[in-house]
């Protein structure tokens, strides 16, 4: 299936992004990662919502980026931010 071909791929964040504990927008944020952070896709979950189809990826951050607005610098936003969690595609 098409999902298995996505898992294991790498990418970069196109903007600053919340990483969440579960694949939905109400799940607890466990960190923010910055634009251009490099990640590996560990899992995928897709489902229908009232707003339309939603796809989430479980990612592992493997290289840090820099704040999209430029005022928070580069690296980790906060030392306690998780390097693994769910992001909205």
List keywords for this structure.
single chain, 89 residues, mainly beta, 4-stranded antiparallel β-sheet, 46% strand, globular
Characterise this structure.
The chain has one helix at residues 2-6, and strands at residues 10-12, 17-20, 29-33, 38-49, 52-63, 84-88. The strands form two sheets. Strands 1-4-5-6 form a four-stranded antiparallel beta sheet, with no helix packed on it. Strands 2-3 form a two-stranded antiparallel sheet. The radius of gyration is 13 Å and the shape is globular. It contains one helix and six strands. Strand 4 and strand 5 (52-63) form a beta hairpin. With 89 residues, it is mainly β.
Write the layout of secondary structure elements.
Elements: H1 2-6, E1 10-12, E2 17-20, E3 29-33, E4 38-49, E5 52-63, E6 84-88
Antiparallel strand pairs: 1-4, 2-3, 4-5, 5-6
Q: Number of helical runs?
A: 1
Query: Overall pLDDT, averaged?
Result: 93
Q: Into which percentage range does the β-strand content fall?
A: over 45%
Gyration radius over CA: 13 Å
Distance between the termini: 19 Å
Which bin fits the share of residues in helices?
under 10%
Q: Could you state the order of secondary-structure elements as H and E?
A: HEEEEEE
Q: If strands are numbered along the chain, what order do they take across the biggest sheet?
A: 1-4-5-6
Count the E strands. Answer: 6
